[in-house]
Write a structure and sequence with these properties.
The structure holds 2 protein chains of 2 kinds.
Chain A lengths: L3 H36 L6 H7 L3 H23 L2 H22 L6 H19 L9 H5 L2 H14 L1 H17 L3
Chain B lengths: L1 H34 L3 H35 L2 H7 L2 H12 L7 H17 L2
Helix pairs in contact in B: 1-2, 1-4, 4-5
Classes of the chains: A mainly alpha, B mainly alpha.
């Protein structure tokens, strides 16, 4: 909807800011929840979970995770999921570091290796060609009338998605909840 | 350890379902936006979106409560990276349900995540 030039300008500012917010709110949200939950007695009843969310540390963690969720949604409105996944992977490493230094967790070499593998894997998943979800700033500039042509161009760009592109919407509609 | 893996499977399963439903909703939203349908069509689509969104939030809540139960006993440094297992299932479902194109590099990424979670279980 917005003109391409101003959209690009906003993109440059938004991306690093949102990336930092997404990484830190998620890692610290999880950290504070873990810290808070460990101070509580073992859960005996499902209602204990509801009470747990009102304790200070868990509450703080939840507030951060709500911030994470909202910033993630906003981030996804102008960036691809495949762009965000590598950032998410940094959050895993940060969580392990927080666990090691603030929760006194023993990180075995296997666990570090596993975390590194997961980080590499997440980056590889995100590094693929995101042409199935063309949600870049170019998309914002594309008018409704151009969208159909754009879709067929995207379909033609990849042999395998040429058939899948047409059935994507109908499959999405028929898959769940009909 | 068995309890931890059970809770982890609830976290991962509910996350996958929640993300899948959210993705379905976002794609439907795009569809409405593009086609500029009539008011009736729009209303029907909006209802469907809401339904997906409500379901997604329900699964997200289940995932969250399973997660806070998990981190009470399990290590944070296990729980958070291991929840990346959802990426493996989400990629498979993105291919099968959303009919997204998943290239070789992305499949390699899925393999790396799976190996990584395997190492966490050591």
């Amino acid at each position: 909807m917005a003109p391409g030039s101003s959209s690009t300008a906003r993109w440059k500012w938004k991306t690093p800011l949102f990336a930092l917010v997404v990484i830190f709110t998620n890692a610290f949200g999880n950290f504070f929840i873990a810290r808070g939950m460990r101070q509580l007695p073992p859960l005996g009843h499902p209602a204990d979970l509801i009470l747990a969310i009102f304790t200070p540390w868990v509450g703080l963690g939840i507030a951060l995770l709500i911030t994470w969720l909202l910033s993630r949604m906003m981030f996804l409105s102008f960036a691809d999921l495949s762009y965000m996944l590598p950032l998410t992977s940094l959050g895993y490493v940060l969580s392990v570091v927080l666990g090691r230094f603030f929760l006194n967790e023993q990180i075995t070499p296997q666990r570090w290796a596993g975390t590194v593998f997961i980080m590499i894997g997440t980056i590889l998943v995100g590094a693929g060609n995101p042409d199935t979800t063309p949600q870049t700033e170019e998309d914002g500039a594309a008018s409704a009338t151009l969208r159909g042509a754009e879709k067929s161009a995207a379909g033609a760009a990849s042999d395998r998605s040429a058939a899948g592109g047409g059935s994507k919407q109908s499959a999405a509609g028929g898959g769940i909840g009909q | 350890m068995t309890r931890a893996w059970l809770l982890l499977s609830v976290v991962v399963g509910c996350t996958v379902l929640s993300d899948l439903l959210t993705s379905l909703e976002m794609k439907r939203h795009g569809e409405i936006h593009d086609l500029s349908p009539s008011g009736i069509q729009r209303a029907i689509h909006a209802m469907a979106q809401k339904k997906y969104l409500i379901l997604a939030i329900v699964f997200m809540a289940f995932s969250f409560f399973a997660f806070i139960t998990l981190v009470q006993t399990a290590d944070l440094s296990f729980a958070v990276p291991a929840s990346a297992l959802s990426i493996v299932f989400e990629t498979i479902l993105a291919r099968l349900v959303l009919k997204e194109r998943v290239d070789t590099r992305r499949w390699w990424g899925v393999c790396f995540v799976a190996i990584g979670v395997g190492l966490l279980s050591q």
